[in-house]
Amino acid sequence: MAEHGEKGVGARFLDSLQAHLAPVMKTNGFKKSGRCYFRVHEERCYDVIELRVTLYGSAEQSRFTCEVYQHDARKDDPQARHWTKFPTTGANVFSRNIGSYRPGGHQHWWDLDGGVDLEALTTELAALLEQQVIPSFGTWGAARKPFIVPAW
Predict the structure, then answer these.
(1) Which end of the chain is more exposed for a tag (fewer CB within 10 A), N or C?
(2) Nearest 5°: CA angle at 37, between 11 and 12?
(3) Which residues is 70 bridged to in the sheet?
(4) pLDDT in tens, 13-72
(5) 0.70 surpassed by pTM
(6) How many whole angstroms separate alpha carbon 49 and alpha carbon 96?
């Protein structure tokens, strides 16, 4: 059990993953904003990698996933979020879960608990991001695997 003030497994994992990703992301032109990495293609057009830990976890157990998308905020009010590093309103050109880059291609959440080797998982995810996710962005608006989000 985590002591008062001690980080839980989700926070420790994110710290480890972000430390591992920092040089890779910087080399590929991404900047960090909280749990997101983004790079600008042109004014108000972004590649985004968002690291997510479930809100409903404990110090000993949590879940992790990663969302990958290209975001186009050109049609949004340019003054709406002028105080943030990148706008959170606008339209996604494409959006997918990191699980779509794995065998089977389905959304995936990793369980983070005492039985998981966090260092091995960090290495696996960093390699997946560097070798498959980042190159998949390609050039802005390039053809991609179709990703359909239901309207309901």
Answers:
(1) C
(2) 10
(3) 47, 94
(4) 899 999 999 999 999 999 998 888 988 877 778 888 999 888 677 778 888 999 888 877
(5) yes
(6) 10
